[in-house]
Design brief:
This protein is mostly beta strands and 809 residues long. It has one domain: Maltoporin, Chain A (Beta Barrel). The protein has a 22-stranded antiparallel beta barrel. Strands 1-6-7-4-5 form a 5-stranded mixed β-sheet. The chain has a two-stranded antiparallel sheet with strand order 2-3. A hairpin with a 5-residue loop joins strand 15 and strand 16. The radius of gyration is 28 Å and the shape is globular. It is found in: Cell outer membrane. It is a multi-pass membrane protein.
């Protein structure tokens, strides 16, 4: 696949002159890698990754055809491939699986990876049998830098200042990289060392108004139960480092050690003000209700460590390769205010507007003495995810009836352990404590009137003198804890043969999985352990074909089979059941893995330097699709009003078309010969059936946008580089309501982000850059059933950056 929009502003590694450094050079390198690949693969090369107006790897990947990102506070976090949700795709770093820091997810939030640590990003959309089969949409491959990526000494250093328009905060960033080759023994330049470092501190925020979908619908009449205003202030710090070694003692062997450390720290203060109406109200109405003011103040740190040692040796016609990998992700909240809530009763309150509701209240809503402290929730949490693997591969080239062939086989063993531990304290023994003594300054909120915030220091001082053991919440602390073990043993056999203009790859992969989950449940006040064990096997055949019409034009086709395990949150063994209230919620450790049969067919044509046009059709038939459901009224839960859990659906289907184009218009007269054009468009459709309460309903796949596209206009000469890029994704189903309640499904609205970057070489090695992100001030909006009914609306504002980069090749 071509990437249309990954157009960097800086040098290709193997060149030394400014007149061949820039957007076209790096795009051309990426296209060469894609053209030669045996898989349907998209690549963002190192120079593009480091020079896009993107803060992290997730945002860099959104430029690739068929990819979109889920954003948190305006920054890209999780990557969706061809409409398949992030938890159903996998991420590898230097060939080893990257585990997820979050306790309940498999998806890796790629904003923990600074772009400066990355040599290349690839997305493989059709897996060959020698690759792990654990992705439905695609496998994202992250490669860190190697000294052998450059001909000799290489170093770069950059500094940057960014300004957030929403909070008027200015933030710093520093990064650098170094690599060189040395001679050991009798060899010449046979040992390489590469290192990279990045540090960024970003102060920013957002303004939010949300209802959580709490609408009562009666035909066209909509009444709201509650609404809340939120103001976020965030300090986000990213630190990343990598140290890599390569040793190539001769022409027949090579060895490497890849290490990476990444630390992502969020310090968040969230002030909220909301109302819950005594009776649901329409826009413009006024009535009685409960008002509240709340504070969340927490610190959350995610860390990723990865260590990979491997090598390859040629022995006559055989190629022996192997790799040992260890990676560890963690998320740690050392303890913070999860919710400090003050409440009061009010009359004459309401709201105005249904898309961005504004609270309609009297002056008493801004009187601190009108609110008394209800409770303070203090929470600390820790989760870890470790993955160890060992892989061995053997390949042999041979002649098959006069055709060049290769047989390849191997095995891999991986061991994964996921653990989560949460402790909660709920302080609620207060005697008429009002908000008056616990206020901070006025909240800067642009979506309406807010008033003063709550002081985190004052709240901590209040509960610091109380006996914490008396307020420990055993229920919340125990039922969310778990440990899970997932052992996978795999083996494969594949054969590649070149017959005239054809390259054919056929093979089969076996994966055997052993799964164990341990946790605690609560039923009618009694705690009990819950353990689950199961084993399952998969045989996954595949066939790839590539036909070379001309040296510039080729046809690709693939039939593959993949398997993905449900998320850890879906498999969680904890449960909470209250027979007297008729309410239950629980995970489902007995869920079956998702299985997908995938078909891909496409054509790609390469047009000189940095030019390509391609079209691909894809189809996925997914069995055992997982969805949230309510089992109340059926089976064991026949007398319950609510029994929320997860279930396997029979099947889901996804099909679509990917189109991509990019070209440097170097045949035009100056200055138009500096123009670069790029664009890609993915059109897709999906359907899945869910069941519950004796009913069946058809839905779209969650997170699947019917339309995803990029458009890029660039221009460059020896000194100046300009790029304007737009990224669009249409609305998608974000959350499924009960099977009989389609009106309360939550949708994320379409988004269009426009970014600009300019770079000017002050000297052949020193570049001044300017960036503008989110120029159009795009917001985030989710709605309930129909687009005019708010679930969440959030504004971020644009960000502007100025930087200097010094580079030596």
């Amino acid at each position: 696949m071509a990437i249309a929009a990954s157009l960097p502003a800086f040098a290709e590694d193997k060149v030394e002159h400014v007149n061949v450094v820039g957007q076209a050079a790096s795009l051309d390198q990426a296209l060469k890698e894609q053209k030669a690949s045996d898989s349907i693969r998209s690549v963002v090369h190192a120079d593009a990754v480091g020079q896009l107006p993107d803060d992290n790897a997730a945002e860099a990947l959104q430029r690739i055809p068929g990819l979109s990102v889920e954003r948190d506070q305006g920054e890209g976090r999780f990557v969706s491939v061809r409409g398949i949700g992030p938890d159903l795709n996998s991420v590898t770093i230097n060939g080893t699986l990257l585990p997820a820091p979050e306790a309940d997810r498999r998806a890796v939030a790629l904003d923990v990876l600074p772009t400066e640590l990355v040599q290349s990003l690839s997305v493989v959309k059709s897996l060959t049998p020698d690759m792990d089969a654990n992705s439905l949409g695609g496998t994202i491959e992250v490669e860190s830098l190697s000294a052998f990526d450059h001909p000799g000494l290489f170093y770069t250093a950059s500094g940057e200042a960014s300004h957030d328009e929403n909070t008027s905060q200015t933030s710093p960033k520093f990064s650098g990289a170094f690599s060189n080759k040395f001679s050991l023994g009798d060899g010449i330049d046979n040992f390489g060392v590469a290192a990279a470092f990045s540090w960024q501190q970003r102060d920013f925020g957002s303004d939010n108004v949300e209802t959580g979908g709490a609408w009562d619908f009666d035909g066209d009449q909509a009444r709201l139960e509650e609404a809340e205003q939120r103001d976020y202030r965030i300090r986000r710090e990213r630190t990343g480092a990598g140290l890599n070694f390569d040793y190539r003692p001769d022409d027949f062997s090579s060895y490497y050690l890849r290490t990476l450390y990444s630390r992502f720290k969020d310090t968040e203060t969230r002030n909220a003000a909301g109302v819950e109406f005594e009776d649901p109200q329409a826009s413009g109405e006024r009535g009685d209700g409960e008002g509240w003011r709340a504070l969340k103040s927490r610190e959350d740190t995610q860390e990723i460590q990865s260590y990979v040692f491997g090598g390859e040796r040629l022995i006559d016609a055989w190629t022996l390769s192997g790799q040992a990998g260890f990676s560890r992700s963690s998320e740690n909240d050392p303890g913070g205010i999860a919710n400090a809530r003050f409440e009061g009763d009010f009359s004459g309150i309401g709201f105005d507007g249904t898309r961005k509701p504004r609270l309609g209240t009297g002056a008493d809503f801004y009187d601190a003495d009108a609110f008394t402290l209800d409770k303070v929730e203090w929470e600390k949490a820790n989760s870890t995810d470790e993955e160890k693997n060992l892989r061995l591969d053997l390949a042999r080239d041979y002649d098959l009836a006069g055709n060049a062939s290769q047989v390849k086989f191997g095995a891999k063993a991986s061991r994964r352990d996921k653990r989560a531990d949460t402790d909660v304290w709920v302080y609620d023994d207060f005697d008429d404590v009002t908000l008056a003594g616990y206020q901070s300054g006025k909240v800067d909120y642009v979506l309406g009137n807010f008033g003063n915030g709550i002081s985190a220091g004052a709240i901590k001082g209040l509960i610091g003198g109380m006996d914490r053991d008396a307020f420990y919440d055993e229920e919340e602390s125990r039922i969310n804890d778990f440990s899970m073990r997932e052992d996978i043993n795999a083996a494969y056999l594949m054969n590649t043969v070149d017959i005239d203009a054809w390259r054919l790859i056929g093979g089969v992969r076996y994966e055997g999985t052993e799964f164990e989950a341990k946790g605690t449940g609560l039923r009618d006040g009694v705690y009990s352990p819950n353990e689950s064990r199961k084993r399952y096997d998969h045989w996954l055949p595949g066939l790839h074909a590539r036909y070379q019409f001309t040296p510039q034009t080729q046809l690709r086709a693939a039939w593959t089979n993949t398997v993905v395990r449900p998320t850890f949150g879906q498999l969680a063994p904890g449960f909470m059941i209250d027979d007297s209230e008729g309410e239950a919620s629980f995970g489902n450790p007995n869920l079956k893995p998702l299985e997908s049969m995938n078909l891909d067919l496409g054509i790609e044509h390469y047009m000189g330097r940095a030019g390509t046009v391609s079209a691909f059709l894809f189809y996925k038939d997914i069995d055992n699709f997982v969805y949230n459901t309510d089992l109340a009224g059926t089976g064991e839960w026949v007398d319950f009003d609510e029994a929320k859990t997860y279930a396997n659906g029979s099947s889901a289907k996804l099909y679509g078309l990917e189109l991509a184009y990019s070209q440097k218009l170097d045949w035009l007269p100056a200055p138009w010969n500096g123009l670069l054009l790029g664009g890609n468009l993915t059109l897709s459709k999906s359907r899945a059936d869910i069941e519950g309460q004796g009913l069946t309903r058809r839905i779209d796949l969650p997170n699947q946008s019917d339309t995803v596209g990029n458009l890029t206009l660039g221009w460059e000469d020896d000194k100046l580089s300009l790029r304007l890029a737009a990224n669009y994704k249409s609305k998608y189903l974000a959350e499924v309501a009960a099977v009989d309640d389609k009106a309360h499904d939550l949708y994320s609205d379409d988004q269009l982000f426009v970014d600009f970057k300019a770079g000017y070489f002050l000297t052949p090695n020193l570049q001044l850059t300017f960036e503008a992100q989110n120029i159009t001030d795009e917001s985030y909006y989710t709605y309930t059933g129909r687009s005019r009914f708010n679930s969440q609306y959030e504004e971020y504002g644009p960000t502007y950056k100025v930087g200097l980069t010094l580079t030596h090749f």
